[in-house]
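Q: Okay, next protein. This is K+/H+ antiporter subunit F from Ancylobacter koreensis. I've checked the sequence twice, so it should be correct. Can you predict the 3D structure?
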Amino acid sequence: MNAAAILGWSITLAQVLLVLAMACAAMRFIRGPRAQDRIIGLDTFYVNAMLVLLTLGIRSGATLYFEAALVIGMLGFVGTVALSKFLMRGEVIE
């Protein structure tokens, strides 16, 4: 086996495992008993989605996937902070 084949199988395995992790996070987001559990599920979901895009970018070599992952990372972080602040204080902007 050469290095390219090992890399291809590794990326495929990583993508499958990340999709499984996204399914678990979606289940936590949907079934979460509290709002805090739902926010953590959403946070985990966007991180896994960002990593799937990064593995797609590595596989294809296109820079568009990396840029989309960067945007998802920034917006996801801001959204998580805003939702957490809303749960703590009842308002986002003071």
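A: Here is a summary of the prediction. The radius of gyration is 16 Å. The chain has one domain: 3-89.
Q: Noted. On to the next one.
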